[in-house]
Amino acid sequence: MSDLVTDGKNGKTLTCERCGSKVLLPGLGTYVVKQIFLPHMKMKSENQKPEDGETLTDFWLIQGMYTFENVGFTNTVSGDVKYMICADCEVGPIGWSSLQDKNNFYIAVDRVKHV
Fold it and tell me: What pTM did the predictor assign?
């Protein structure tokens, strides 16, 4: 982890694991530890259950949706949650945001490449 964090910020560009599209430039995300459940990054199936996913703890906190280079949002789920996806290839979710806290966005460290 220490090779990814520089002065509490992302030291490298965050890119999509699948297509390589830029998600966030260096120095714009703050490293935070927060438990957030995200569905698995796989194609939805009829057998998929709401609990199919994992709780992650390492995130980049980004303040302001216009800070991103390239990110998309899903429709609202669970009342006030929007998942974040790659805007180019739509893989995800790579992160999470809440409608109750509209200025904070969380990208999972393990769901993006650091280049």
Answer: 0.89
Which DSSP letter does residue 109 get? G
Which residues are bridge partners to 96 per DSSP? 83, 106
CA distances from 46 to 4, 37, 49 (A): 37, 20, 8
Question: CA 81 → CA 22, 65, 97, 105, 110, distances in Å?
Answer: 23, 15, 6, 11, 20
Using alpha carbons only, what angle is made at residue 94 by residues 81 and 106, rounded to the nearest 5 degrees? 60
- Tokens 């935070």 correspond to 32
Range in 7-11, 24-28, 46-50, 73-77 the model is least confident about: 46-50
Q: Using one digit for the tens of pLDDT, what is the confidence trace for 43-93?
A: 555 566 656 789 999 999 999 999 999 999 988 887 899 999 999 999 999
Among residues 30, 33, 82, which one has the least CA distance to residue 60? 30
Residue 103 CB: number of other CB atoms within 10 A?
Answer: 9
